[in-house]
Structures are given as structure tokens and as C-alpha cells.
Amino acid sequence: MSIVTLNNRAVRSVTTFGSVSGGSMVFIKKLTASSSGDLSFVDGANSVVLDNTYKEYLFTFKDIHPGTDEVTFRVNFSIDSGSNYNVAKTGTNFYAGHTEGDATGFGAPGGQQLGQATGKAYVILGDIGSGNDETCAGYFHLFNPSSTTFVKHWTSTATMYGSNPQSQVTHSAGYANTTSAIDAVQFSMSSGNIDAGDICLYGIN
What we know:
Elements: E1 25-36, E2 38-42, E3 56-66, E4 71-78, E5 89-99, E6 104-107, E7 114-117, E8 122-128, E9 136-143, E10 152-161, E11 166-176, E12 184-189, E13 194-204
Antiparallel strand pairs: 1-13, 2-12, 3-9, 3-13, 4-8, 4-12, 5-6, 5-7, 5-11, 9-10, 10-11
């Protein structure tokens, strides 16, 4: 790739950068919850693409509202088109929060860390409130899920209206410890339904 230089370092008169091009985010699929037990993205089903078309996939979730109070929003992976969500996962997260009562918290909850867990889903964030105006939102990156050489890494950043109540941001990262291609991703609550909200899937060029 060539380096573009600007005379006098000025950009105010630039109308084009010639052949310079960047990546793009390609919308693939939107799933909307309505008292749903889970929202699952399965490659090849209902126009979902989750294969080697892209090396990075982005899930955005908005206004995710649980049907049950003080639950965690979580994710799991499949290598057999959603027949089983039992891929071994190792990951960690930490949070910072601030309550409406002006108290501050910071930590890495022990129950939300996974080491080679299979059946258990990975926690994106915890203790979401179920009040009428309480939700969570954020994004989840999955890198090169179709690789048959390497494990599959993810990162996530999410914010929520917590059950205590508080504002909380959670950062998480980890890997699915498999060299098989991941072809399905499932989002759910630790208990009860996803009462409302939507999740969109994008491929990153």
C-alpha cells in the first residue's frame, strides 16, 4: 500500500485520496427478541453468513431487556451448526460501576471467569436489571471463526442499567479453545428469556 502525503499537511482542500481505500462493515442479519429463550446465529440458516467470507465478525446488541431480574447476558459457540453449544472456552472480564446512590465499584467477579468450560456459556456482563426501563447494550467481536488452525478469539465491551441500580461497563476477552470452525453463535440469559431487544451481525472486510 502506498503512503499518501499532503502538501503542508493541510486537509482542508482535499477532495479525494486517490486509490486509498479502507475496510467496510457489511450488514448480514438482525434478530429481534420477543420473550425469546435465546437468539442464535447459525451459518447457512435464515440468510446468516458465519464462515470464511470474513475474518472478523461483529455483533451489536441494543436495548437487551431480560425477563428476570439480576441475570447475566451470555454467549456460547457451536462447531456443528447449533446442534450443541459446548465448545471449551477460556476468558476473563472486569467491570467498573457507579450507582445512583453515588457509590463506585470495580472488580472481576469470580463466577464470571471461565477456564476450559464447555457446557457453561461465557458471561458478557452480569446482574442486569429487569425493570421496565432497564437494559444492556454493546458489541461483541469474534475473530476468524472458520479457522481450522487456530483457537477463536473474542473481545467485548458492554454497558448496562444494573439491578442495584447502577451504570456498569464490562470489558471481556477470551478464546474458544477449538481448531474446528465455529459455525453458530448463541446469545441468552442465565435465567429466563430475552424479553426484548435486537442483535445485529456484521462481517468486517
